[in-house]
Amino acid sequence: MLDIGKDIHSLSDFKLNTTTFVDQMRDTGLPLFLTIDGEAEIVVQDAASYQKILDRIDQLEALEGIERGVADVEAGRVTPLEVFELEFRKQRGLPDRPR
Questions:
Q1: What one-character-per-residue DSSP string does the chain give?
Q2: In a 10 Å sphere around its CB, with 0-12 CB exposed, 13-18 middle and 19+ buried, how is residue 32 labelled?
Q3: pLDDT of 61-88, one tens digit each?
């Protein structure tokens, strides 16, 4: 959880105490919010925590794709495999597969 006293700092303070702040981010897994002229401008995060976010986004996108696929099946928006294969081969100039 964000702690305003620990997680929001000026860019100048970050420049002067970079090692301390990097250690803090590694320890907590939380980002720092950096201000310029008193306005929040930059978010800084350790690489491991950022990678976790990217991985989670990938998982959510995969789940959304699965949900769309299930909805298509339930709505009857499907193509039989044999029809798909014939169209796929024709579009790509591939010979028919012997049956």
A1: ---HHHHEEEHHHHHHTHHHHHHHHHHH---EEEEETTEEEEEE--HHHHHHHHHHHHHHHHHHHHHHHHHHHHTT----HHHHHHHHHHHTTPPPPP-
A2: buried
A3: 999 999 999 999 999 999 999 999 999 9
Structure tokens at 58: 């990938």
Q: What's the pLDDT tens digit per position in 22-35?
A: 999 999 999 999 99
The C-alpha angle 67, 71, 74, rounded to 5 degrees, equals 140
Domain ranges within the chain, ordered by starting residue: 4-45, 49-89
This prediction's pTM = 0.69
Answer for the pair 7, 30: CB distance below 8 angstroms, yes or no.
yes
Nearest Cα neighbor of 31 from 44, 40, 42 is 44
Q: Is the four-CA dihedral 59, 60, 61, 66 of positive or negative sign? A: positive
